[in-house]
Write a structure and sequence with these properties.
With about 350 residues, the protein is of the alpha+beta class. The chain is about 40% helix and about 15% strand. It is built from nine helices and eleven strands. The strands form four sheets. Strands 1-2-3-5-4 form a five-stranded antiparallel beta sheet. It has a two-stranded antiparallel sheet with strand order 6-7. A two-stranded antiparallel ribbon has the order 8-11. A hairpin with a 7-residue loop joins β1 and β2. α3 crosses α6. About 40% of the residues are buried.
Length: about 350
């Protein structure tokens, strides 16, 4: 697994001109009339390309640029994620156009999307949950498995997307991979190691296995994969929600809602409540809040792994783990015995 490397910084010079390979992916007859920085990101450079089309009209495109082998995989993972979401709900994401590598700058890679003019406002508390529920209803895994066809990234961290038959296995693989990133970034921690063992051996089976046993079943649903207020906005003109920076996964739909639990985010539990008006809580319903906390551990592990030396998210994650380990000391087996009694 790739982790943060020291040569990851992307020079601003890569968005001060339109590379010939980028221009070649634009509609035939496009003439570049300007390129301007647009948006902010820690891991890439982003810009608006303004063009004049063959019919004389002006049309803008969104360009994202990254570098090195990890950056190339990031671009592929993101555009495949956007393509899957766009196929399910076309008005929820920018239209994916192309991805590739620069001709004039070595080890420099890009993706192109349609340009959506957005406000700085987070999406409406009803419109966003409704559209996310629509994504989860329409975006179903064609092979019936959990995972994703390519590896993708959150920030510069790869996530495990290997196809699995059960959500329990998929989530465990994904969390294990993110905890490996976290340890490489922050160093080992004895308490975290002990808690992690119980999370995998006790808590994950207890909270996720009941979703797919005892006559219960969940389908693998397409999720954005990193849906917090930094990755969504409101479209100018329609006031509809727009989501971006996807790291998609065919997953339990409730996994999408984990970032909405975090008090540090502007999109919170009221959005979660609105979502469940359009997509019911999975059975066993009484496990819903603890499943959400378990999924939140995965996102806090990612946050910790992205910022070396900042132990705030590790401390949050350890507290979350402790809460669940204390509550479920007997794991799935204890729960199964209770169901028979």
């Amino acid at each position: 697994m790739e982790i943060l490397d020291k040569d990851a910084e992307v020079s601003e010079t890569v968005i001060q001109f339109v590379d010939p390979n980028v221009l070649a992916k634009l509609p035939e007859g496009s003439i570049s009339i300007g390129i301007y920085p647009y948006g902010a990101t820690y891991w890439t450079r982003t810009a608006e390309i303004q063009t004049r089309q063959a019919d004389g009209s002006q049309l803008s495109f969104f360009l994202k640029v990254s570098q090195n082998e990890t950056g190339k995989k990031m671009m592929l993972g993101e555009i495949v994620s956007i393509k899957h979401i766009h196929e399910a709900v076309p008005d929820l994401v920018p239209e994916p156009i192309a991805w590739g590598s620069y001709l004039t700058v070595p080890n420099t890679h890009f993706l192109l999307l349609s340009f959506v003019n957005m406000t700085d406002d987070i999406p409406d508390i009803d419109r966003l949950p409704r559209k996310v529920a629509e994504l989860h209803q329409k975006g179903r895994s064609l092979n019936g498995k959990f995972g994703f066809p390519v590896q993708n990234y959150q920030g510069r961290l790869s996530q495990v997307t290997t196809w699995t038959d059960t959500w329990e296995e998929c989530f465990a693989n994904n969390l294990r991979g993110m905890l490996e990133h976290e340890e490489k970034t922050q160093g080992p921690n004895a308490r975290l190691e002990v808690l992690s063992k119980d999370i995998f051996e006790k808590v994950i089976p207890r909270l996720l296995r009941p979703l797919e046993t005892g006559g219960r079943h969940i389908e693998a649903r397409l999720v954005h994969g990193d849906l917090w207020d930094g990755n969504c906005s409101t479209a100018v003109g329609t006031d509809g929600p727009v989501i971006y920076d996807a790291s998609a996964l065919y997953a339990h739909n409730e996994y999408e809602l984990a970032p909405w639990r975090c008090t540090r985010h502007k999109i919170g539990k009221l959005y979660m409540r609105a979502y469940h008006r359009y997509f019911p809580i999975s059975a066993p319903e009484e496990d819903h809040d603890d499943r959400n906390l378990l999924y939140c551990i995965r996102f806090d592990a990612c946050s910790s792994a992205l910022y070396p030396g900042n132990l705030r998210f590790r401390d949050i994650m350890i507290d979350e783990m402790q809460t669940l380990v204390d509550k479920y000391p007997d794991g799935y087996e204890g729960w199964a015995r209770e169901q028979k009694s």
